[in-house]
Specification:
alpha+beta
Length: 63
């Protein structure tokens, strides 16, 4: 069996606190496919690297 890399998973609440957005915004990002996540039962876990990458992406012009 191959060794898995050390991946730290964060809860939706932890991601929301890091990104300074609401939990609903994190859920929207996950459902839109903009933030990868793994579902465990009824909850989601987001890899820490995905949060770091999302925060480093340039902000697009909305309007």
């Amino acid at each position: 069996m191959a060794a898995l890399p050390d991946v730290k998973f964060l809860t939706v609440a932890e991601v929301a606190a890091i990104m300074r957005v609401s939990k609903m915004t994190v859920y929207r990002l996950v459902h839109a496919g903009e933030l990868p996540a793994v579902r465990f039962g009824r909850s989601y876990r987001v890899p820490e690297t995905a949060v770091t990458n999302a925060l480093q992406r340039p902000i697009s012009d909305v309007g």
